[in-house]
Amino acid sequence: MSKMTPLLERNEQFARTYTPTALGLPTAQVLLVTCLDHRTNPSIVLGLQLGEAPVIRNAGGRVTQAVVDDIAFLAFLAEQLSGGAAGTLFEVAIVHHTGCGTGFLADPGFRQQCAAATGLSEAALEASAVTDPHATVRADVERLLAAPQLSPNDSVSGHVYDIATGRLTTTVDARYRVTELPPG
User: How many angstroms separate the CA atoms of 31 and 25, rounded?
Assistant: First the structure.
């Protein structure tokens, strides 16, 4: 028996009452960027249902170039699905959490062992460490707001999930990318 067997059985129960959702704008108009930690499932923590919000998950919930690229694609897709309607398409909510396992990457010895085992660069690993989630979420909000690929129709906010209490708090209120005005 595979470790997937009980999950496949749960899927059978789910599929019995499943109603497909058409491709369209996420109903909550939120796109989440969060950690892949199994203790931080955004569907459970935020009570999300299918079709409400796309979720991008990676180690630490950090804004990487791959995340920026995914957000740019989703913004383009949302604009196409909305018929190019002006206005806010969605808010990108960056969520980091307390007690993140990437915090171990702040230790040079651990980071060196991780680099050797994974083939990832020590610099990249160090950059992904979340030791102070309030500081890293602020840095990632700024990183995303500085990305030219971010649609001016999308706002960015930052939040921290507390593993001990189950509460999500806002660290950075929703903001839009400041675009340069043409001279003159």
Answer: 10
* φ/ψ (deg, to 5) at 16: -65, -30
The chain-wide mean pLDDT, for the chain, equals 93
- How far is C-alpha 68 from the geometric centre of its chain's CA atoms? 10
Structure token digits, residue 18: 């499943």
User: What is the C-alpha separation between 19 and 117, in angstroms, rounded?
Assistant: 43
Pairing assessment for the beta strands 155-161 and 168-176 based on DSSP bridges: antiparallel
Residue position matching structure tokens 């109603």 = 19
Under DSSP, is residue 102 helix (H, G, I), strand (E, B) or coil? helix
Closest Cα to residue 162, out of 96, 94, 92? 96
Q: Compute the C-alpha angle 24/81/65, nearest 5°.
A: 90
- DSSP letter (8 states) at residue 107: S
SS3 label, residue 72 = helix
Beta strands in the chain (DSSP E): 30-35, 55-58, 91-97, 155-161, 168-176
127 Cβ contact partners less than 8 Å away, ≥ 6 residues apart? 62
pTM, full prediction: 0.91
pLDDT score for 90: 87
Q: How far apart are CA 56 and CA 69, in angstroms?
A: 11
